[in-house]
Design brief:
The chain has twelve helices and ten strands. The protein is an alpha/beta fold.
Length: about 375
């Protein structure tokens, strides 16, 4: 009996500490996103190069490229890298180039002796850029307003080299779509919040800007060039610091992407994203693993303690406190990032997402692919 009480006392202490870590993350990193006020000083508009890499994206380019080409910005070019496309991408771009003189096309032809990843196409676009400020998005994305370029690039003065934006997914029916949007929102609150706190560790290629000078000064994608992913997060992880990085997530600066069409497509995409995790800086890996690990411990300890009614009043009080903080932060975070209709699902996904992500990460370790996939 004494040993049982000792064990449960230890579990209770672990539970309380895990709850403390959870609340700390919400109040330190996630709350930073909510409280952040963006009032950038008006600066003279600098020339910008928007870079989009596309492989077999004819339909998406037809639908979304005009939104990029019709931005309310005085001096910019749009570079589309047509990377070995086998659909009618060339025809779509040919039609647009006649209408939009600021559209430039770089073509990468297929070579059976040479396979490459998206970083090579990105490099071709960067080399073709006429301007120092580079703004990136994807072919299946569109800016939510005509002020996207001006909002994302107005920060490039002083020491700023990198601007991290928010790229969400379009809302549609189904549980998978809700999970994708929830996952994207939580990841964004994490990397935006950490950047605000002076610990930038990643960005997303759907909405990211940096200087061409920085890219070549630090040898491009460097030692990560061989990886199938990481043209966005690993570049930021290697080059960002608290002095040269700012965040921009006003609603006019958001982009929206087509969500994966099914579970298999999403699973493959998520696996590809996780291939970069082992290459993050040690500090960032520790910070990133602490939150989901403490969450698993929190829910596991809660289940043990409440099932045995051990200090159940205190257990429920701690659980309730964390839940209140979580709900307040999520409601405000969803408003800030324009992600509606996720609150109920977010509370459920909060329990299972560490297990889902852990399973995908383990799957990567067990089935490492040597295939150099573009997307």
């Amino acid at each position: 009996m004494l040993q049982d009480n000792l064990f449960l006392s230890v579990v209770f202490l672990v539970f309380a500490f895990a709850a403390f870590l959870q609340v700390l993350y919400y109040l330190w990193f996630y709350l930073a996103v909510i409280r952040y006020r963006q009032n950038p000083e008006r600066q003279e508009s600098k020339p910008v190069s928007v870079i989009i890499c596309a492989r077999n994206e004819a339909e998406n380019l037809k639908k979304f490229l005009p939104v990029v080409l019709e931005q309310d910005y005085p001096d910019y070019e749009v570079i589309v890298v047509n990377d070995c496309s086998e659909d009618n991408t060339y025809d779509i771009l040919g039609n647009y180039i006649q209408k939009y003189p600021h559209l430039k096309i770089s073509t990468v032809n297929r070579d059976p002796r040479f396979t490459h990843n998206k970083k090579f196409a990105q490099f071709i676009g960067i080399k073709a850029a006429s301007n120092d400020i580079l703004l990136f998005t994807d072919a299946d994305c569109y800016p939510e307003s005509k002020n996207w370029i001006s909002n994302m690039t107005c920060h490039f003065h002083g020491a700023t080299d990198i601007v991290l934006g928010y790229g969400g997914y379009l809302r549609s029916k189904g549980l998978l779509n809700k999970y994708i949007r929830y996952d994207t929102m939580i990841i964004a609150m994490n990397y935006l919040g950490m950047a605000i706190r002076g610990i930038p560790y990643m960005g997303v290629g759907r909405n990211l800007a940096y200087n061409k000078t920085l890219f070549f000064k630090n040898k491009g994608f460097g030692r990560f060039n061989h990886l199938i992913s990481g043209d966005d997060d690993l570049f930021v992880n290697s080059n960002a610091n608290k002095k040269n990085t700012v965040v921009e997530f006003r609603k006019d600066s958001h982009t929206r992407s087509l969500p994966p069409s099914g579970f298999k497509v999403w699973f493959k995409q998520k696996k590809r994203h996780f291939t970069t995790a082992p290459y993050y800086r040690s500090r960032d890996k520790i910070l990133l693993i602490t939150e989901p690990l403490s969450r698993v411990i929190f829910y596991l300890a809660f289940t043990i303690l409440i099932s045995l009614l051990f200090y159940w009043k205190y257990v429920l009080a701690i659980f309730g406190l964390r839940l209140i903080v979580q709900i307040i932060i999520l409601v405000k975070g969803m408003k800030k990032l324009n992600e509606s209709g996720l609150l109920f699902y977010s509370i459920i996904f909060d329990i299972f997402s560490p297990l889902i992500n852990g399973s995908i990460y383990l799957s990567n370790l067990l089935t490492r692919s040597k295939k150099n996939t573009w997307k």
